[in-house]
Task: structure prediction
Amino acid sequence: MHNQHSGSGTPTRRGVLAAALATAMPLARARAAAPPPPAQPLALRFATNFAGVHPMAKVVRGIIDDFTRDYPTITVGIEETPGNDHQTKIKLDASSDRMPDLFNYWRLDPGFGLDQITRAGKLADLTDWTRTDPFFQGLFDDYSWRTASLDGKVYGIPCVMFYVEFLANRAVFDRAGVALPTDWASLLAAVKALTAKGELPWAISIGNDSQGGRIYNYVVNRTVGNPRALRMHSGQEPINVPEMVTAATMLRDLVVGHIAADAISINNDAVYAKYVNTGRGALAIDGSWVTPTIKKEVLDTIVVLPFPLLPGGAQTEKNVERDLTSLWYVGAKPMRDEARRPYIQELARRLSSRVAEKQYAEQAQQPIPALGVDVDESKIGRVALEAQTMALGSPANKWIPTVMKPAQRTKFEPLLGEFLSGNYTPEAFVAKLAPIFTV
Amino acid sequence: MGTLRFSPAVLLFMLPALALYGLFFILPFTRTVWYSFFEWNGMDDAVFVGLGNYADLISDALFRTGFARVALWAALAVLLKVGTALVLANFLRDRMPGGRFFEGAFFVPVVISSAAISLLFTLLYDPDIGLVDVALRGVGLGQFTHAWLADQNTALLAVIAVPVWHTIGYFFIILLAAMRNIPRELYEAARIDGAGARVTFTHITVPTLWPVLQVCIVLAVTTALKSFDYVFLMTRGGPGTATEVPVTMMYKTIFVNLQIGYGTAMATTIFAVALLATLAIRRFTGFGLG
Result:
């Protein structure tokens, strides 16, 4: 399977051709540019949230181990911060002017705060390097490079993508004698029937940056369309409008009363330990990175579903939320250091090579942005493969919080959690959204 | 109030300590206050906004609510933490067989990190596997089982209960040591005069201990005002914003939102409130002291 991501959000014939050409390109060309080991000991700083049980952790560590084996005078200090705490770590590094040499991070969108860091000159401008180094030719498509850019300059190197997968545990549905949903009406009926039968319809957290937010995104996008949803959540268009009340009403009907008692207090990972891997939850919705964390016996009973269209909604195609989710970035100061630059570049090349991307796809089961990578489908697993096929074959929705400023997210996410707990009417919820997003 | 008198030469010996104090407290503190008059993200040029951040704080309903929450926390800490420690210390004041065991047992939680304790209690409060609900079901009180940290009505009290329990032993040890320094003659004289245990406790133990108790109360209140770890580790301020307290808001404002100016205004306000609380406690609990 070739993984590609076009600007329009769907795979294209041109993309497949580019992928085939790129495959033919000798990988040795990148190695030819590799610098000799430095004579003096050199310590590089590498910061990542690919830590602990994250499926990428082992692969990335392996690549770094290979790098230090080839460059015995170089040590790579790995600064691990799991999950979203990585954002705090990088922001602190930026404000104390000690950016790591190389690190992975989310996109340059306001929602992650990296746009501020970039505009403050803390990130290296990679435009010239990525345009002139033959290594990067044909490696990623235009959409990926645009996503890695800010104000017309390239600051990131694409690493892995994500898509949101909507999963149903057939065993729970069978146990309750409820049919798998095929549209909005049957989805609503299913969650109500599951609750009535004593089953847990949604295996989700509704805390901050949780799976509850994924459902919000889907319902809002389906109702008003993704471009309008993004405008509303970035203050370019009023949010306190009847369509949003409609969306909130549908969201309430779908979620409130159909989640675990502790859904607002447990974190996303705990959901898998408590409700997914125990086979208790009927429906799960999450980023594609979680698939490898689901136990095999549960995966065997999982069915990948498209999130249904909503009656009267603006979206008429079953768009899937997907994008680049992780990119490699280089600190501006380390990149200016001529003694460090060649080795930072070499490590970055190794982490974004087709060999590495193949490992990300096959071993970590992550969707990848690299073109021309011949991925062995049998290594991905049925669920991930079905979900990837569905995601890559559908138009894309952008993740709504990507346009929010961090201060807006810290207000929006607790409010959404309270709403999904049943605290507000849809009208009151939308009224409370307005001051958060009014610029 | 006493007068500090010392030879000027002593100042020379104090200089290293003063320098360290200045470097690690006075300077950062002054800079914190200074930043609070700016709008700044920690990277770009700071923009002077005068008292603008403080004006915004006054109109920040969540910040005000946060102070109400720590006021409740402080009150419960004084009543339950210091109160329980006082009672326990009084029981173990006279050495008795097995007393050492209880002294150790009461103090043991203090040596466990707040992170471990928070994780432990997060599991204890779990509605499915948590011992709290299991115990309730076990004694036939299943109707009271609860997702303690997920309910906005119980989350704050569930969180407060943890540090209150966790550090009872700290105050217990302080008060026990102080009690054992009270001259035994006082108790013997009281006993000869026919005083019972209650009268001895209220008329000898408590008044004699009062300066130490005053310190304990100040510590309990200021610890409540600045407690971050338990809230952050157990609820991160949730559900919703139900357990958000000033210090967790300050953390998010500075380190997540990168609103350094607004966050340092919060920090300065928290410091000012803690200072005022300390002065007030000393003022209102100082009666009868020589």
In short: The interface with chain B takes residues 87-88, 91-92, 94-95, 113, 116-117, 119-120, 122, 207-208, 261-266, 274, 405-407, 410, 414-415, 417-418, 421, 423 of chain A (CB under 8 Å).
